[in-house]
Amino acid sequence: MDRFCAPVEVSGVEYDSRRVRRGDVFVAMRGEATDGNRYLEAAIAKGAAAVVTDSREAYERLRREHVSVGAALVERGRRGLAEFSATVMGHPERGLALSAVTGTNGKTTTAFLLEAMLRSVGRMCVLIGTIETHVGDEVRVSPHTTPEASDTLRIFADGVKVGATEAVMEMSSHALEQERVWGLPVDVAMFTNLTQDHLDFHGTMERYFAAKVRLFEGVGAAPPRVAVINEDDWWGGERLAHSSLRSEVMLYGIEGGEYRAENVVLRAGETRFLIKTPYGDAALRSSLTGRVNVYNLLAASCAALARGLTLEQVVAGAAAGAQVPGRFEVVPSSNAVTVVVDYAHTDDALRNLISLARELVKERSGRVITLFGCGGDRDKTKRPRMGRAAGEGSDLVVLTSDNPRSEDPMMIMEEALVGVRETAARCIVEQDRAAAIEIAIHAAKVGDIVLIAGKGHEKVQILRDGTVPFDDVAVAAGVLRGIA
To answer: What does pTM read for this prediction?
Structure first.
């Protein structure tokens, strides 16, 4: 790091020039979409007392033109953001025991479950994830799955102020590769699974996996004390578990693992199994539904045990766990048709969701109606696979738009339709998502289940011309009220 001029007193750290206040450090870093160094003048005009930059050119300009502004040149902007933020905020990350979960599917539910288990024994928690951020009892909106370092540390600092001692985070592959979590000391790291997703960013499955592995190597911090790994997942059981980890390893699964689920019973609104552990066995029950949640419960249980809970406390915490918004969320209705909203947005997640629905309608000879779409500006190769997954398991597919972003919705749908046409399923194509939801629900008869997949908890739809309010649960509830 290269510095110049006398030390200056600073009051905060910002990477967005629009949020800079007098006395702040502005961290200008090159990102994927924009370069923060373009906004140096704006930050200084708003009163930035110092600037940290990853651009030699910008640094030299500061030396020439803004000699009263403190400055530092760093090799990597995000590392600089993390290190300066931690210093200015008094290292709040050191006051919290951090558990972090990564994987393609299950991160949100696993994080919610672990937080519920920790809270059930009286521990105050911070939770940062896709749906919500929790600071003790306060619930905040989460704009990103994993925020930038300064935002995370600010949340941690708020948590420490209200007495939190534990933190639970989802860590996405993007955040790990981009080092948004630089310097965070992870105590317990969890790996749920790896299936194809985000290849528009990572390029290959190997690179996607390598990004996930960084959590277990430590990103600017020591490796985690404990690594919790799904042994039934090939990437976890065959690759990660057999790599040169420097952590205590806890392997979980249904087929294998020393922390194992046996005698699994799945019903709508209930999952029960015997959890076998080196500490003994116990009967575990949860209101969550489906085989995928057996894995989520096992991951959270292992992490809770690693954080010092007893097996009895884990079982009690699992029973008390709440429904996660947008994860197999049943839309309330007096109608005899079951409508479920779920975040499933990969072919693997869609296949698991449909398989669960098929089990639930088996006894009443019902049908599975699946509505789905594919996101724009994302991995295009998964679109036909999602279509195939929907068609293989469903009696009727309603193909619609998801978040098309800058792409043409009909072009996205055509690419997904290729996969549906490889199956025998009947398919209705309707670009308007609200109209598609109405079609799917009106097509259902008594005993059927309607799956509305892809957006889950989201409250907006991202279109080429901007973002508009859209809530799958609210739209479906409105349709159900109209036919009650």
So the answer is: 0.86
